[in-house]
Design a protein that fits this description.
- By secondary structure, the protein is of the alpha+beta class.
- It has 2 domains: 182 residues, 2-Layer Sandwich (Ribosomal Protein S5, domain 2), CATH 3.30.230.10; 162 residues, GHMP kinase, C-terminal domain (Alpha-Beta Plaits), CATH 3.30.70.890.
- The protein is 37% helix and 22% strand.
- The chain has 10 helices and 11 strands.
- Strands 1, 2, 3, 4, 5, 6 and 7 form a 7-stranded mixed sheet that branches.
- Strand 6 and strand 7 form a beta hairpin.
- Helix 2 packs across helix 4, helix 3 packs across helix 5 and helix 9 packs across helix 10.
- The longest helix is centred in the C-terminal third of the chain and has 19 residues.
Length: 357
């Protein structure tokens, strides 16, 4: 893998890093102004950069062994570069004078697995630029800028869960976040438990999926119910007034917010695991973002003697699953579940254990 000096003939002036994330509860609630419970994973994205003598930005992806050039007026054609471009454009929108940059990106966060590879890239990019230019921008503002970059310049109408998680989580525990107010609290996992993440091996792309369609459905449901966002509905019976599929979409969001709130208030491992399993059923049946491979992987996890609960994580339509298991059992769970899951068509991989949890 080529280093920064290999690519540009000099050492970087600044660098930034950010972890990927896994979401334990609160799936598809963030763009409904609801509650989420993510945790960091050990896999990280690293961005190195320096000022460029040329008039364009040059971005090299070590993972793809590919370069892209762009200016703020001429976005890159390569999709992988649009995240960094979006972050720089969002900074410029805030009045920050940006010089042309030479940049190298390297990541161990799996792409397309629902583990926030894009948000990790955005946060790492902004941290590197913050360091280079000595910007007075705290981690919450970094997350806000990254969120705006993905919405406006990448075209994914995501909520702010991923950016806040990648910006604020560095180590153990879960981040309980109210995505409307950004009130937040770092809380511990249930006693005597840990989490295991397994990538299904089936990638998905948010921009190419039905993610934006689900968001539109939620906004339509909120308008029909006369509320600013589905977060404002707490009685699931209220959703029965909606036509299908809006009734089921709203039911998922209402019940998922309730699960995230319950999970944030403390629970046994068995109780928290039950909330995760209920979340998966809701994502599968009401929100319809699961796949046969994800359902099969969740079933294998739930049938393991050391697992308390399991669900898909992230937007769905492929990607990874997360399970809560007994402490010190994550590696055994991953090994034994993958032995039963792997087929010539689906090759999974374990990402265990997440950092410090």
């Amino acid at each position: 893998m080529m280093t920064f000096a290999d690519v540009y003939g000099a050492e970087p002036e600044a660098l930034g890093e950010a972890p990927g994330r896994v979401n334990l509860l609160g799936e598809h609630t963030d763009y409904n102004e609801g509650y989420v419970l993510p945790a960091a994973i050990p896999q990280r994205t690293r961005v190195e950069l320096r000022r460029s003598a040329g008039g364009t930005c040059d971005l090299y992806s070590a993972n793809l062994d590919r370069r892209a050039r762009f200016t703020l007026d001429h976005p890159p054609a390569d999709p992988f570069a649009r995240y960094a471009y979006g972050c720089m454009h969002a900074l410029a929108d805030d009045g920050i004078d940006l010089p042309p940059l030479e940049m190298r990106v390297a990541s161990t966060v799996p792409i397309g697995a629902g583990l926030s590879s894009s948000a990790a890239l955005e946060i790492a990019t902004l941290r590197a630029v913050r360091k280079l230019l000595d910007l007075d921008i705290d981690d919450v503002r970094v997350a806000r800028i990254a969120h705006r970059a993905e919405n406006e310049y990448v075209g994914v109408r995501c909520g702010i869960l991923d950016q806040m998680a990648c910006s604020l989580l560095e180590g153990g525990g879960m981040l309980f976040l109210d995505t409307r107010t950004l009130a937040r609290e770092l809380i511990a996992l249930p006693p005597a438990s840990e989490i295991v993440v397994i990538d299904s091996g089936l990638p998905r792309s948010l921009a190419a999926s039905k993610y934006n369609e689900r968001r539109d459905e939620c906004e339509r449901a909120a308008r029909m119910l006369g509320v600013p966002a589905l977060r404002d509905v707490t009685d699931v019976v209220v959703a029965d007034a909606l036509p299908e599929p809006l009734r089921r979409r709203a039911r998922h969001v209402i019940t998922e917010n309730a699960r995230a709130l319950r999970g944030s208030r403390g629970s046994t491992a068995a109780g928290f695991g039950a909330l995760m399993s209920a979340s998966h059923r809701s994502l599968r049946d009401d929100y319809e973002v699961s796949t046969p491979a994800l359902d099969g992987l969740v079933d294998l996890l739930l049938n393991h003697d050391a697992v308390y609960g399991a669900k898909l994580t992230g937007a769905g339509f492929g990607g990874a699953c997360v399970a809560l298991c007994a402490a010190s059992e994550a590696r055994r769970v991953a090994r034994e579940v993958l032995a039963r899951y792997d087929t010539p068509a689906t090759r999974g991989r374990a990402l265990v254990p997440p950092a410090g949890v």
